[in-house]
């Protein structure tokens, strides 16, 4: 049986890299904001930093990949369960080096079948896959417009999208939502085969 491909983003979806990023900004720039204060995807304007500084701090965070927590303590277990039924593709446009990303995945016991490191977020739209999971509402919206299935994982910076997109608050809910998507797809296939 052919396994469907589940395409999963890293930063903000698997890796909570914004946690050590905020810590660096607090300590070195004396900007007293928390992860919950990040109410949009553009950290530069929220923190009053140049985009180059934002990206350089993320590079530093990823060089110390062991300091990056997962977004959900159940993540390794859920990914392992999903991998029974899906081909897992890690798809990222992170500023991190491949070596650091792969080491983080290994360190956190997140198994996968393929790893794709893109130059920019918008390239995700062209990736072949069946279901996409990302924290970027714009990307999820564009993927859905292409007729593919996608879920946005809830984060403080994507709340504006939550009411309009298929979403999950954590990885246990991701698993449930994927099952719903597959049931809907089977029902559609069944209707079309009767025509």
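Q: What amino acid sequence fits the structure above?
A:
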């Amino acid at each position: 049986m052919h396994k469907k491909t589940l395409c999963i983003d890293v930063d903000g979806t698997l890796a909570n890299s914004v946690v050590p990023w905020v810590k660096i900004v607090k300590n070195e720039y004396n900007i007293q904001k928390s992860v919950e204060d990040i109410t949009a995807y553009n950290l530069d304007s929220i923190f009053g930093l140049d985009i180059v500084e934002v990206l350089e701090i993320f590079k530093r965070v990823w060089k110390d990949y062991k300091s990056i927590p997962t977004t959900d303590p159940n993540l390794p277990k859920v990914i392992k369960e999903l991998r029974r039924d899906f081909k897992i593709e890690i798809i990222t446009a992170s500023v991190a080096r491949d070596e650091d990303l792969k080491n983080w995945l290994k360190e956190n016991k997140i198994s996968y079948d393929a790893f794709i490191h893109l130059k920019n977020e918008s390239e995700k739209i062209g990736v072949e896959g069946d279901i996409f999971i990302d924290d970027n509402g714009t990307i999820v919206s564009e993927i859905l417009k292409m007729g593919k299935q996608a879920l946005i994982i809830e984060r403080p910076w994507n709340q504006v999208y939550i009411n309009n997109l298929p979403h999950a608050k954590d990885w246990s809910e991701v698993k449930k939502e994927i099952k719903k998507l597959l049931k809907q797809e089977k029902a559609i296939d069944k209707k079309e085969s009767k025509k």
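Q: And what stands out in the fold?
A: The first strand starts at residue 4 and ends at 8.
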